[in-house]
TrEMBL record:
Domain Luciferase-like per the UniProt entry, residue ranges: 22-308
Organism of origin: Pedobacter frigoris
Organism classification: Bacteria, Pseudomonadati, Bacteroidota, Sphingobacteriia, Sphingobacteriales
Stored Gene3D superfamilies: Luciferase-like domain
NCBIfam families per record: oxido_grp_1
Designated name of the protein: Luciferase-like monooxygenase
Length: 336
């Protein structure tokens, strides 16, 4: 059955991006403002991602920022997209998210990833030598986390207080096919990072749907796709705003990361042909333009992949232009 944008939930991924000339403190204030804005616009969830040693990303202490956003809002679901579980012990994450769920009941999501969310040197600084191979135990750590949240764990010698007995939805995140198998085997919802790693997106969600085993958590497969959206009142304005996103990903390709840069009139003098090609590959699931353009292109995307929910990330330099972008996107989903 063909899906329509007006029939699926729409959500936000915020990397707590630090823009040129500003600080993380400024970023957190703007994130809270954005969260209140999208809550009023009908967005379903507001997720933050764990990254480390990245000058433009302020959400390294992800659980803390989730609490900040949940405290600034009233109804929108707030969570992680995601917590990089190999960086932590499952017990500590159970306690942190048990605390969040106790403070903001019925509003907390726990998305889990197996990547370090950083470079290998920083990963070693986070994990220590004893946990260098922690990613290999990701499936077992997810099961441990589920056990800590279960009421049955009350007889265990190690308990998550708070956390035990709380209904905190766990999502498996992926940027390749690996996590698709795990999400399917455990019967958990699956969120794919198509906003920066689109190459295996369609293959991964196909694997997930074909191998999905119903569980007490989920009866049918549920796929969330994260994409980049830069919307404005005109295509020309949106295309200019999007140059901040392109500059950010140029930094990823070149290894020369910067704070989020102001938009430019043309990228021609900013990147090389090689960098442009690489950035365009990473940003294949990016939608830029006016409401009409974004609606047309997003519907084509939905027709192709049939996901159950779309989450949008927007790296836009000007805060009010970012608010406007999410406002336009909400109109796309509402059919206004």
């Amino acid at each position: 059955m063909k899906k329509s944008l007006s029939n699926i939930p729409y959500s936000v991924l915020d990397l707590a991006t630090v823009i040129q000339g500003k600080t993380p403190a400024d970023t957190f204030k703007k994130s809270a403002d954005l969260a209140r804005h999208v809550e009023d616009l009908g967005y379903t969830r507001y997720w933050l991602a764990e990254h480390h040693n990245m000058i433009s990303v302020a959400s390294s202490a992800t659980s803390v920022v989730i609490g900040h956003i949940a405290g600034a809002t009233k109804t929108i679901r707030v969570g992680s997209g995601g917590i990089m579980l190999p960086n932590h012990s499952p017990l500590v994450i159970a306690e942190q998210f048990g605390t969040l769920e106790s403070l903001y009941p019925g509003r907390i999501d726990l998305g889990l990833g197996r990547a370090p969310g950083t470079d290998q040197v920083t990963a070693m600084a986070i994990r220590g030598e004893q946990r260098l191979q922690a990613a290999q135990s990701f499936p077992q750590d997810v099961l441990k986390l589920q056990a800590y949240f279960s009421s049955e764990n009350s007889t265990s010698s190690v308990r998550a207080i708070p956390g035990e007995g709380l209904d905190i939805p766990i999502w498996i995140l992926g940027s390749s096919t690996d996590s698709a198998h795990l999400a399917a085997a455990l019967g958990l919802p699956y969120a794919f990072a198509s906003h920066f790693a689109p190459a295996q997106f369609l293959t991964a969600i196909k694997i997930y749907r074909e191998r999905f085993k119903p569980s007490e958590h989920l009866k049918e497969p549920y796929v969330l796709a994260c994409v980049n959206v830069v919307a404005a009142d005109t295509d020309a304005e949106a295309n200019k705003l999007a140059t901040s996103l392109y500059q950010m990903f140029k930094g990823v390709i070149s290894g020369k990361r910067q704070l989020l840069q102001a938009p430019v009139d043309s990228m021609d003098l900013v990147w090389t042909d090689y960098e442009e090609e690489q950035v365009n590959q990473m940003l294949a699931c990016t939608f830029v333009g006016s409401k009409e353009t974004v609606k047309h292109d997003l519907q084509q995307f939905l027709d192709q992949c049939g996901v159950d929910e779309i989450m949008a990330s927007a790296h836009i330099f000007d805060h009010f232009a970012r608010l406007r972008s999410y406002e336009i996107l909400s109109e796309v989903f509402k059919g206004i």
